[in-house]
């Protein structure tokens, strides 16, 4: 069966990965490639329903294990319904967050055992691993400032995770950098502090010969 390329975008909140994913999708499509964009949590109708539970600021009672399983539930549906079929037809799949998010947010951030996260992930992802992961790295201050600005522009309230302490985000950021150091062949690490076109150009350069 034809196998496309599975590219994930990762980074702390406000790093700009969603904007960059869209730009890259446009660039690749203009070159005649088939591109499928998806997001976690979400990506499917069922995933969107799960996403609403996860990001609802009212759900303060949610237990870390419940949260973990909901991220995986969304992923299982996305892998089965969207990602695997698209890869099967040779498309490039660009996914806004995937397993690395769970490892750093639930593992490093919430302190859940990384081995448990990986075991559950193997079930949810059905063993699927990204071919390439673009990690957009920004410092904490930039992240928080951007996240606040973004929230003020939408409905004025902060999402449950954006509310988390600076310490949590710092653990997440360091977790990402540690993962990238462990798997340098998979990760393309991009400094996300520059302007949008500059970051886009660096991502394109970083993915040359890989996608
Ligand atoms: P979202 O608003 O999409 O944030 P962003 O635009 O920064 O991606 O919300 C997704 C949130 O879910 C984000 O704070 C990270 C978190 N998350 C996890 O904690 N674990 C996961 O496995 C995934 C996929 C996301």
Number of domains: 1
Mean pLDDT: 93
Number of H/I helices = 8
Largest sheet: 5 strands, parallel
> What is the level-2 CATH architecture name?
3-Layer(aba) Sandwich
As for the CATH topology, it is: Rossmann fold
* Poorly predicted ranges: none
* Element-by-element helix/strand order: EHEHHEHHEHHEH
Number of strands: 5
Strand content: 5-15%
Query: How many angstroms separate the termini?
Result: 18 Å
Shape: globular
| Structural class category | alpha/beta
Q: What ligands are attached or bound here?
A: thymidine-5'-diphosphate
| CATH homologous superfamily (4th level) name | P-loop containing nucleotide triphosphate hydrolases
Identify the CATH class.
Alpha Beta
The order of strands across the largest sheet is: 2-3-1-4-5
Gyration radius (Cα, Å) is 16 Å
Tell me the quaternary state. single chain
Helix fraction by DSSP (H/I, runs of at least 4): 40-55%
